[in-house]
Design a protein that fits this description.
Helix content is 11%, strand content 35%. By secondary structure, it is mostly beta strands. Strand 1 and strand 2 form a beta hairpin. It is globular.
Length: 141
């Protein structure tokens, strides 16, 4: 006799992660909430660049690891990394253009999330450029 629940599938209670996005401006690299979640909100990460494939990978790292960069505080929604050497290295692959007064130019790229290895890989070829209004305090006129 066939089981009463034959053909049924369990409802997955793990909510899907949204799009992982890295945004590069002239002074910072910002990772959205989905990226922080895939990485597991690590305190430190390593950023790796593959010159041949033009890809940038982000993966958790130990605090004492070589080239580890301070990343997320507990419960962080999104993270901005302002380490000058890192920003310049990434901008070599994602150059940021000029922006009109009061705006900030950026390059944004979606990443491929590998949750099982807590890694996100961003393909430079898929980047889009744009400008956004400057955030924060307005400069005195």
């Amino acid at each position: 006799m066939a089981s009463l629940l034959q053909g049924f599938e369990e409802v997955q209670l793990v909510k899907p992660v949204g799009k992982t996005v890295m945004t590069v401006t002239d002074s910072a690299i910002r990772f959205n909430k989905a990226t922080v979640e895939v990485l597991g909100s690590p305190a430190y990460v390593k950023v790796l660049i593959n010159e041949k494939t033009k890809q940038i990978a982000v993966t958790p790292a130990a605090e004492k690891a070589d080239n580890a960069v301070k990343f997320a505080k507990a419960g962080a929604a999104s993270v901005s990394v302002k380490e000058p050497v890192l920003v310049e290295a990434v901008k070599a692959y994602l150059p940021v253009g000029d922006a009109p007064e009061g705006e900030v130019a950026y390059q944004s790229v979606n990443g491929a999330a590998y949750a099982e290895s807590k890694t996100v890989i961003f393909d430079v070829a898929n980047a889009t450029a744009g400008t956004m209004k400057r955030r924060g305090r307005k400069k005195a006129a």
